[in-house]
Amino acid sequence: NEQPHTRTTFKSVLRIRPLLKKERDDHVVLEPLSDGSAVALHPSTKDILSPHSLETVQTGQDVEFYLDRVFPLSSNQEKVYFNIGQPIALASMDALKHEHEQKKTHLILAIGLTTSGKSHTSFGTNCQKRKNDTDGLAPRMVDSLFSQSVHSVIHKSKVRFGVELSILQVSQNKANPTECQIHDLLQKKKKTSSST
What we know:
The chain has helices at residues 21-26, 77-92, 94-97, 118-123, 137-155; strands spanning 13-15, 29-32, 38-42, 47-49, 56-58, 63-66, 69-71, 168-172, 180-184. The protein is of the alpha+beta class. Strand 2 (29-32) and strand 3 (38-42) form a beta hairpin. It is globular and about 65 Å long. The protein starts with 12 loop residues before the first strand and ends in a 12-residue tail after the last strand.
């Protein structure tokens, strides 16, 4: 049963990154379609993953996938943030504007094969510098949340503000492919002591 004023929304988004040499050599082409919410896969091989199941299908034809949004190759980090991250950051702060509103919980899930662009889109290429053009969703959203909180605290007294952020990496266990490994990317690595 859904509680009153509780709504769950799911959006599927695809960001197309530049092709790797192997992909160019294999002539794998992923092309955004005109409406910005679909993508066509032009396979050079006959075996592709079916959009309706987890099985491969034999086809010589293009396959179309429909999503809420497709970001073409030309999309930069800022465009991705303003379309995905900013609406989430603004919605997260609604509870400060409306005293009786429940806190908001949001999840961004980046899924893809190794080298598919998940880290670049999520974090950017240089997280050490402050406010870089290549910043990904996470640093831009955190910056937005704290900027909005400062504004809210200045205009309201007795405002409490907190942010909880988890960044987890789930990967396939190479030793046992039926198991997954979960890594907390914000946890400091433990120093190992060696005795000589």
